[in-house]
Amino acid sequence: MTERARFAWYGVLVVGPLFVVFGELGFWLNGIAPRETFPLDLGVSSLSITAGLVVWRLRPDNRTGPLLALSGILWTIGGIRAYRNSWTFGVGQCFDGSQDLVLAHLLIAYPTGRLGRTSLRLLVGAGYGLFVLGVIETMTMDIPRRFNALAVWQAPGVHSALDTIGSIGAGVYATSGIAIIGLRWLRAGASRRRVLGPVLAAALCFAVAEAADQVFVAISGSEPGVVFFPPLAARLVIPLAFLFGLARARLDRVAVGDLVRELDASGAETMQSALARVLHDPGLRVGYRLDDRDGFIDSDGRLLTLPPDGSDPAVTYVSRNGVQLAAIVHEPALLEQPNLVDAVSAAVGLALDNERLHAQLRNQLQELRASRTRLVNAADSERRRLERDLHDGAQQRLLALALALNMLRARVHGDDAVQLLAEAEEELGNAIRELRELARGIHPAILADQGLAAAAKTLAGRCAMPVEITANGRRFPPAVETAGYYVIAESLANIMRYSRASRAWIEIAEAGGLAVISIGDDGTGGADAGAGTGLAGLADRVGALDGRLVVKSVPGSGTTVRAEIPCA
Amino acid sequence: MTVLIVDDHPSFRRLARRLFQEAGFSVVGEAGDGRAALGLARELQPDLVLLDVMLPDVSGIELAEQFPSQVSVLLVSSRSAEDLAIGSRRFLRKDELTLDRLRAVAGGAD
Fold this sequence. Notes:
The structure holds 2 protein chains of 2 kinds. By secondary structure, chain A is α+β, with helices and mostly antiparallel strands. Chain A folds into 3 domains: 3-251, Rhopdopsin 7-helix transmembrane proteins (Up-down Bundle); 269-368, no CATH class; 451-566, Heat Shock Protein 90 (2-Layer Sandwich). Chain A is 64% helix and 10% strand. Chain A has 17 helices and 10 strands. Chain A has helices spanning 3-29, 38-58, 64-79, 86-95, 98-109, 118-139, 156-187, 190-220, 229-266, 271-278, 338-392, 394-409, 415-442, 445-450, 452-461, 478-499, 534-543, and strands at 285-289, 296-297, 303-304, 314-320, 323-330, 467-471, 504-511, 514-521, 548-553, 559-566. A 5-stranded antiparallel beta sheet of chain A has the order 3-2-1-5-4. In chain A, strands 6-7-8-10-9 form a 5-stranded mixed beta sheet. The model of chain A has no long low-confidence stretch (mean pLDDT 82). Chain B is an alpha/beta fold. Chain B has a single domain (2-109), classed as Response regulator (Rossmann fold). Chain B is 40% helix and 23% strand. Chain B has 5 helices and 5 strands. Chain B has helices at residues 10-22, 34-44, 60-64, 81-84, 99-109, and strands at 2-6, 26-31, 48-52, 72-77, 91-93. The longest helix of chain B has 13 residues, at 10-22. The radius of gyration of chain B is 13 Å and the shape is globular. The chains are: A alpha+beta, B alpha/beta. The A-B interface holds A 391-392, 395-400, 402-404, 406-407, 409-410, 429, 432, 436, 439-440, 444-446, 449-450, 454-455, 457-458, 461-462 and B 9, 11-12, 15-16, 18-19, 22, 54, 59, 78-80, 82-85, 94-95, 97-99.
């Protein structure tokens, strides 16, 4: 704060109370209001001015502070009309009721103090038009000029008409203000409701008290304002609501200060849920900046798209030592409490950086997993292409050659030539068979054509021992079927090589979004899942699809290989 | 005995035509895919269709069920019956397609 500003504040602190007491004493000493209500009267103006100045001091960019203080000052100015002086009467009369116009402005502009939309500007402009009406009303009062210095045109008819218009206008204006803040509250999220709530409650309280006063006047036939106490007490609640909001914001900052300790203590609560709790915004999201490229990820490592600047929800970036760490996506209402968000940045910077590193690690794991899946899928589709190329290319040419040789046999004469042709046919038959087996090993065509159950049946058919198959024929995604096929093929090969089993079985089923493929035997057991590359390679293949491979092999009790692969 | 040859490889169709002709069949048509095969089978009403299991547009096994009932179908493939998980009845691997076998079939039909 500059010297000049500090001097101005000291001036306000000294002159303000004197001015307030001067204005309010007017009411009291001159019998305009009952003496019992003097403390309330004094409380309304002094609290409004004090609360307004405090808000103004703490949030200089927010216009609610000056507006609240102005309402208190205007309340006081209204009081000076009670002094027996024609000028103080005239001026005081002009300002009588103007504090409510400012209060309505305050409600409409709350919580930022800015009106924003043109329609709201017009409404508030019309509200201040009522003040002009009040001035004219003062000028047309049927009171001699020695009592009212501003009574330049004594016209009781005009005065009465303006009085009626002014009362109705003020009622409509005040109701609009309350309706606007009420609608804003209904549409707001939790965080903004927390800000709007106390002031809305105070405004409603005041409106009810005023309405009750009017009803009482209508029923009892007494003069308006005779029942001073309830509206005055309700008026007192408005600055208190502002002070309450301020205190609550302070407490929120204290809660932020405790955040790091609580996070360390609980261990289970994530930064996101802790911030959502402390900032009272259940929809709050935390995005962690990636180190190696542009973009943000959530705590699970998934990419997070941030809303554009100026949109709803809003984004606040958190930096530490000049390095951007995270982005907090939150209700725009939190932007009205920049100190709170700054407190968050300061308090949780280190913890956020920690969690950001964890999120980044999760993101890298996800990418690694996705990359492994892509590699396996690419290898599978390359195998399919190779098998198809063999089938359509070399295999077909050899088959055509076989047909040609077969037809040639009828045309060849002489033992040597027939013998040579028979040898050529035999060699060719061997080549075709080897090529067929090679193609089958590269990728079994039956898998794509008829699915895992049918493919398992062909694998079982090549086994020396009986193999029982339990499957419902359900098709799984190609990558799952391919992985399942190789699990079955490798397991059956192991059973035939090592198990000395008399029988084996294959089960293919779906359970809880998983393709479950089990291969068992009644052999010697004792297989070592870690030995050799066969089962380890299968575990890698299954793992690439986010699945797992479990091998149970107890000596003397056979072996079961079970693959569980997500298939939903 | 009339025959329709259905295979997507032209070189195989050409040699199969000669093989069938040498075995005493009358080759009435050739088709490279399932749709053309079905049209020709309905139009020409052959006694036998030599049908490749793996056609570009449809599986030969499924297509076989759509032919007119009086048409006999002989499924062939470069893959084995075991690889295709189909019964060996009315199926031959392509390298098992010999003049002697076809003559036996033609003789049996006569």
